[in-house]
Design brief:
It contains three helices and no strands. It is mostly helical. The two termini are 31 Å apart.
Amino acid sequence: MGKQNTRWEESVERYGQLLQAVNDLVCHTTQLAKSYEDINMEFGQLIYENGLHEIMNKANTLQDYERNFQFMYYSLRGQVEQLKQVRGVLQVLLIRDPVNCPCN
């Protein structure tokens, strides 16, 4: 028969799993935002250095592209900040959870 975990051990393990998942999400979302920015900077450099922005302007797509880039970039950055706040709240809950408080 295997060793049974106490309520405290189970609680710490569950919070640990959740915090690790949130940390992974923060990390991957940060990487996604950085990758998105890098790819779009390369695209912007290409179109502006080669005069291709003029074609996009004629097609009335340049402003739409720039607006959509800004929206997506700041949305991803905002998501990262919200996830960091969630992580902070979870860390406080871990400390305040009655299961994790000593009885004495």
